[in-house]
Design a protein that fits this description.
It contains seven helices and eight strands, in the order H-E-E-H-H-H-E-E-E-H-E-H-E-E-H. With about 200 residues, it is of the alpha+beta class.
Length: about 200
C-alpha cells in the first residue's frame, strides 16, 4: 500500500447551520428530518410534555412525522438558533389558509433556554414572516390556561387572549381548559418594535 492510501481520511468539518430568517437574537432555520433526535429530546422533557400536552413518541415515528411536515405545503417548521448556531427550540406556522389568511403557531423551547426571552424573540420573527411575507390576517395560538410561561411569552409578542375552550383537552387523566390567543394584522402593524428585516 502506498503511504497516501494508508492515511486516515480527515473528518468532515461540522456544518454550521445558517438561519433563513432572523429575530433580534435568534435565527430560524428550516426543520429537517435529521432534527428528529433533537426534537425527541425536547419533547421528552416532563415540563414540556405537561404544558404542551404531548406524550412520548418513538424516534422513528417522530422522524416520519417530521418528514410529512417538511412536505406539507400548509405549514412552515423551523429550528430556533442562537447566534453561534446552537439549536434551542422548534417553532412552526401550521394550518395555513391562504384564502382566509389564517394560521396557527406552535413553539417548543429547549429546557435550558427557557425564561431568557428567546421564545418571544422567535415568535416575533415568525409573526413578522407571516405578516410581512405571507398574506396572513390572523394568527392563533392555543395552550393550557395554566401554562403561565406560554401565556406570558405570547402576551409579550402581542397576542391577546380572546377566549377559553372549556374542558377541551384530556391530558394525564385530567381535563384542561384551553386558552385561545390571537394576533391580527392591524395589531401587528401597530406594534412599535423593529421588524425582522430592520435588524
Amino acid at each position: 500500500m502506498t503511504e497516501e492510501a494508508m492515511e486516515e481520511p480527515e473528518p468532515a468539518a461540522e456544518t454550521i447551520r445558517e438561519p433563513s430568517w432572523r429575530g433580534r437574537k435568534v435565527g430560524l432555520s428550516p426543520l429537517d428530518a435529521d432534527d428528529a433526535e433533537l426534537l425527541h429530546r425536547w419533547r421528552s422533557d416532563p415540563v414540556a410534555a405537561h404544558e404542551i400536552g404531548i406524550w412520548p413518541q418513538p424516534l422513528p415515528a417522530l422522524r416520519e412525522r417530521i418528514e410529512r411536515h417538511v412536505e406539507d405545503q400548509g405549514r412552515d417548521d423551523f429550528i430556533v438558533l442562537l447566534p453561534d448556531g446552537t439549536p434551542i427550540g422548534h417553532i412552526a406556522l401550521f394550518d395555513q389558509d391562504m384564502v382566509d389568511g389564517t394560521a396557527e403557531l406552535y413553539l417548543l423551547m429547549d429546557p435550558q433556554n427557557r425564561g431568557q426571552g428567546h421564545g418571544t424573540d422567535a415568535l416575533n420573527a415568525l409573526v413578522d414572516l407571516a405578516f410581512g411575507e405571507l398574506p396572513m390576517h390572523r394568527l392563533q395560538a392555543v395552550t393550557h390556561t395554566d401554562n403561565t410561561a406560554a401565556l406570558t411569552t405570547l402576551g409579550n409578542a402581542g397576542f391577546v387572549q380572546e377566549g377559553v375552550r372549556r374542558s377541551a383537552c384530556l391530558h394525564r387523566g385530567r381535563r384542561y381548559d384551553l386558552a385561545v390567543l390571537s394576533l391580527l394584522r392591524a395589531e401587528w402593524e401597530a406594534l412599535t418594535r423593529p421588524r425582522s428585516w430592520d435588524l
